[in-house]
Every structure is written in C-alpha cells, then in structure tokens.
Amino acid sequence: EREKSFMVASLEGNILAELDDALQRIHDGSYGHCVVCDQEISHKRLEAIPYTKLCISCKANEENQ
Q1: What is the pLDDT of residue 7?
Q2: Could you write out the DSSP letters of every residue in 1-62?
C-alpha cells in the first residue's frame, strides 16, 4: 500500500508540473504548438490532454524510440 500511495503521489506531482509548464507556455505564446516540430497541436488532442507538449506524430516517434 505504501508503494501504491507513493506512485499515486508521484504521478500527481508530475501532472502538476506539466500543468505549470502549460501555463508558462500560455504566457509566452507557445501553447498549442509542438515543442519538437513547432506544428500546431490539434484541438482534439489539447482537449484530451491540455498539458501536452507534443503533436500526435512527434509523440508516436517518441514512443517508438
């Protein structure tokens, strides 16, 4: 149970960090653009994962490596 609690807390901390990063991208005007290829991230992807940094193509490439 301790390990499970630690994993949940760690995941929550990671999501909070991602949200903070997304807020910073909103402030600097780069929100909604992929950090790798600078293409616009689809609205559907942003609705599903509002803190995402990568477009679908770059995310797929990252997962395949």
Answers
A1: 82
A2: -HHHHHHHHHHHHHHHHHHHHHHHHHHHT-TTB-TTT-PBPPHHHHHH-TT--S-HHHHHHH
